[in-house]
Amino acid sequence: MSAVRVRTPKDLRRQRRTRPPQCLDHLYVAPLWPLHGVNLGTLLRTCDAVGACLAVPRYPWIPEALARGNTLRRPACVHWVRDPAHWLAGRREAGAAVLGVELAENAIRLADLPMARRPTVAVLGHEREGIPPECLDLLDAVVEIPMIGVGASLNVAVAGSLVLYKLAGFV
């Protein structure tokens, strides 16, 4: 049996795909009704890992939450959203697929979700109430994360991270 060789941070940096510093306008995660700042920091880190952008509302507490959560200490791709319904409609009109992460009939199971082949927005709902009714009609599809435990859903950071990795084609 061969010994496991753990890759060093220097090895990892050399082997990673290079990523341009600007917004690629391809993959977004949109927690447009957030409750907890720590979830935004986690999502920001996931966005960096998969080459995605974070779309967040202009709540007064969000810039501080993002600054605290940005453990990479470099600029991240963040889009500020004033009106979620208007922003989602605009993304759709621009040709993006708008995918809701929600418990719904006819939802795509996470395992069956294909890699994003065109600009895609993964919309994350309010942690207690989900995606508001006025935004449900703006969704092209819905993805559901199957669970066997007693909880009805995962927190926004975990759900968004799972969906982003799948859409980016890493799993």
Oligomer: single chain
Low-confidence stretches: none
Q: What is the rounded Rg?
A: 16 Å
CATH superfamily grouping: SPOUT methyltransferase, trefoil knot domain
Q: How many structural domains does the protein architecture include? A: 1
Distinct helical segment count = 6
Which term fits the overall shape? globular
Largest sheet: 7 strands, parallel
So, CATH architecture? 3-Layer(aba) Sandwich
**Percent of residues in helices:** 25-40%
Quickly name the level 1 CATH class.
Alpha Beta
H and E order? HEHEHEHEEEHEH
Q: Helices and strands: which structural class?
A: alpha/beta
Instruction: Record the strand order, biggest sheet.
Output: 3-2-1-6-4-7-5
For the secondary structure, the number of strands is: 7
Strand content is 15-25%
Cα separation of the termini: 27 Å
What do you see in this structure?
It is a single chain. This protein is α/β, with parallel strands linked by helices and 171 residues long. The protein has one domain: SPOUT methyltransferase, trefoil knot domain (Alpha/beta knot, 3-Layer(aba) Sandwich), CATH 3.40.1280. The chain is built from six helices and seven strands; from the N terminus they run H-E-H-E-H-E-H-E-E-E-H-E-H. Strands 3-2-1-6-4-7-5 form a seven-stranded parallel sheet. Helix 2 (37-50) crosses helix 3 and helix 2 packs parallel to helix 6. The protein starts with 8 loop residues before the first helix and ends with a helix. The model has no long low-confidence stretch (mean pLDDT 89). This is RNA methyltransferase. Residues 38-165 form the tRNA/rRNA methyltransferase SpoU type domain.
